[in-house]
Amino acid sequence: NAGVTQTPKFRILKIGQSMTLQCTQDMNHNYMYWYRQDPGMGLKLIYYSVGAGITDKGEVPNGYNVSRSTTEDFPLRLELAAPSQTSVYFCASSKLTGNQPQHFGDGTRLSIL
Amino acid sequence: RKEVEQDPGPFNVPEGATVAFNCTYSNSASQSFFWYRQDCRKEPKLLMSVYSSGNEDGRFTAQLNRASQYISLLIRDSKLSDSATYLCVVNNYGQNFVFGPGTRLSVLP
After folding, report:
1. Do A33 and B97 lie within an 8 Å CB cutoff?
2. I need a surface site. Which of A21, B6, B31, B104 has the fewest CB within 10 A?
3. In this complex, is the C-beta atom of A102 within 8 Å of any C-beta atom belonging to chain B?
4. Cis upstream peptide for B44 (omega within 30°)
5. Which residues of chain B neighbour A94 with C-beta distances below 8 Å?
6. Record: contact B99-A42, CB cut-off 8 A
7. Residue A22 pLDDT more than 90?
8. How far, in Å, CA of A82 to CA of A13, rounded?
9. Nearest-CA residue of chain B relative to A32?
10. What local confidence, expressed as pLDDT, does residue B2 receive?
């Protein structure tokens, strides 16, 4: 029972490089989310999706892009990495129907140097 | 006023103690409520959902007070392994989950 799977678990990037953080879920959840969490801080929503082909901005979308071509996958793209994007990134998913919690992947730890 | 507020702590309690956390929310239309725990540098993990009538799971009891717009979490017989940050999460509609800043708990031997 995989749940939400994120890859890679760790990555170091140089300023200006780009990369894609992968997220996939096998629970047939409609909703998917990307959060970032800086040290000692709370979760901040970057982007979310309510279904394949539909995405929307969260609280801190600048510097990121997402796509949702399938129900299972919700990749997060960093185009021009900046030191301010050093963080832990969590992907989560939840069911369409109400009163259902979010389920989180185990995170990607990203450092921009 | 923040949408979901929690006392950041830290709460330092001895093993075996009972500890309670409160969380207040500002949106009276909020529909569902959850407690998550987050260990250092790990992902948030669902601890329990919070139901209107209150619910219990082993040593953990959650209560919801809609009139006063707060939820609570009670931990009895604290274990060292309970040391973590406890996140209050409120769902207002559909995909809109709002996380509190978390309350840190340290259970001391």
Report:
1. yes
2. B31
3. yes
4. no
5. 95, 97
6. yes
7. yes
8. 9
9. B95
10. 80
**Per-residue confidence at B31, pLDDT binned at 50, 70, 90?**
confident
- Name the residue among A31, A88, A101 with its Cβ closest to that of B49: A101
Strand order in the sheet with A64-66: A4-7, A19-25, A76-78, A64-66
pLDDT at B12: 97
For A9, nearest residue in chain B (alpha carbons): B42
- Write the DSSP string, A34-64: EEEE-TT--EEEEEEEEETTEEEE-S--TTE
Identify whether A8 is preceded by a cis peptide bond (ω within 30 of 0): yes
Question: Which residues, 6+ apart, have CB-to-CB distance to A41 below 8 Å?
Answer: none
Query: Is residue B10 within 8 angstroms of chain A, CB to CB?
Result: no
- Asked if A101 lies within 8 A of B45 by C-beta distance, the reply is no
pLDDT in tens, B59-82: 999 999 999 999 999 999 999 999
Tokens matching residue A50: 């309510």
- For the residues A18-42, what does the mean pLDDT come to? 94
* Alpha carbon of B38: minimum distance to chain A alpha carbons (Å): 11
Contact in structure between B87 and B100 (CB atoms under 8 Å): yes
Taking an 8 Å cut-off on Cβ atoms, the answer to whether A99 and B91 are in contact is yes
Residues A33, A23: contact at Cβ < 8 Å? no
